[in-house]
Amino acid sequence: MADAFFDYVRAPDVARAQGFGADLCRAGISSQAVLQVGRCLVEFCQRHCPPDGFDDYLDQSQVFYQGVVKGYFRASESMILQEQERIRSALQQTLHRYTVQLEAAAEIARTTVSMLDLGLLLTTAVDRIAERFQLDYVAIYLVDDERAYAVLRAATGEEGRQRLARQLRLKLTGPSAVSRCILNQQVLIVNNVEGEKIKSAASWLPITRSEIAFPLASHDTVIGALSVQSSQAGVFSTQDIPGFQIMSDQLASAIENARLYAEAEHRAEDLAQAFEQLKEMEQLKDRFMENVSHELRTPLTMIKGYAELMLSGEAGPLDDEQRHALNIILRNSEALSELVIDILAMLEVRTKHKPLKAVSLVEVVRDSLASFQVLAFRKDVSLEADLVAASGQCQVIARADHLRRVIDNLLSNALKFTLAGGSVKLRLWQSERTAHLEIADTGIGVPLHLQARIFERFYQVDNSRRRLHGGAGLGLALVRELVESYGGSVRVNSLGQNQGSVFTVLLPCAEG
Ligand code: ADP
Predict the structure, then answer these.
(1) For burial by CB atoms within 10 Å, which of 186, 204, 264, 302 has the most?
(2) Residue 454 in contact with ligand 1 by CB distance below 6 A
(3) pLDDT digits (tens, 9 = 90+) for 418-431
(4) What are the pLDDT digits (tens) for 451-462?
(5) Is the beta carbon of 413 within 6 A of some atom in ligand 1?
(6) Cα–Cα distance measured from residue 281 to residue 297, given in angstroms and rounded to the nearest whole number
(7) What is the mean predicted confidence (pLDDT) over 6-20?
(8) Kindly report the CA angle at 82 between 80 and 84, in degrees rounded to 5?
(9) What is d(CA 9, CA 7) in angstroms, rounded to the nearest whole number?
(10) Ligand 1 pocket, 444 CB below 6 A?
(11) Which of the listed ranges 106-115, 319-328, 347-356 does the model predict with the highest average pLDDT?
């Protein structure tokens, strides 16, 4: 065997040696093993060749060995290049697939995200997905309120239309890929429906050979599933998951948005309806109050008239007890008349004012002050006015009786809530085109947190003094409504309990 080898080595055929090396490479022999062969060759020569021919043999065998090595590495180089090419094209294909999927997902997300009509959103989504991914059937299921069924809400093609008409729904605990994907909150790939042990005929078309189902999740809750099907077996792989997953997530938020919008719209409708009813009730109430107030006016005038007549002694002499009782009747019927006037004025503010002319605010203030002097005197409260800065000015386009109501109510409150020995000061002046009316008292004051509330209808600061003084809580509401109806405003300033109050009314002055 050694001789045969030496004969062969003596006349080395380099081409054959290279072919041999290439065969070793293709057979998968490692480069380590090939290098080991080189070392074995030297040892073989040392051991078996005659001593005088050793160098020759060694040279020749080296030529042979170099040929083998060269062939081996050339072959391995070309194999590496081929492998690189294979990987590159596989990568390119995957990249292309991802790009197409992401582009489609972005396009579908763009189209659906702003859709607020749920039905339109779902139909558009299935049609676009089927078209962009060239699928045979796409369907969207949404979980029902009881979380018992996945209800078909949109599906492509004639087959889809028929299933929608049949109101197809799948039991969540059933065998379909859709149900399992919802229940397990996981993507499910069925790559050969024939080979499936658990059949899901209800959700497959007769032509369906493979399916991939994605859970639609919003805020950690699975609200439904997206099912895409193909008539070819084995078309879906895990590589399809990222693109479809992004799309499913976008779809889920678009569905949630559309649902929230529908809910908000529904609530808005309910609210609008309730508001209409309220408005109607408010009108009925106003009409009722107006009627009652008008009906009260005549009997009240009669009561007051007769009480005054009897108090004057014209109807016969009175003893002290009778006089006292008549005084009470007169005082209360006067208070009731005031209230009726307030109510009627309040209802009237809402109806359009008749054509108005400029009214001198100074004159209205003077009239009002004159009528309160007696009450102030009786209560031992000083009532002063500073009209110097305003004389000849402060013309306001308004109804005089409305302005009188504003001043009367503010003065009456100031006197009502100020104890004996206190004072009420009224100031009127004009700056630029605005009339300022300020009524300051040294009374019980208004707590800071209630200063906005006292202008609400029927609101009264809940303390014993209120009960002591009576009133219906309408005066300030009327003041505000009247003042605002003439483009003005009213506010109160008080440092709190027993610190007095300052009410300020601003009204636009007449031109010229
Ligand atoms: P009424 O005086 O009939 O109760 P108003 O609407 O005129 O109703 O006033 C509402 C409430 O605002 C009063 O009950 C009172 O608590 C408070 N208020 C009004 N004016 C004054 C004031 N000058 N000083 C202290 N509290 C006031």
Answers:
(1) 204
(2) yes
(3) 999 999 999 999 88
(4) 988 898 877 775
(5) yes
(6) 24
(7) 73
(8) 70
(9) 6
(10) yes
(11) 319-328
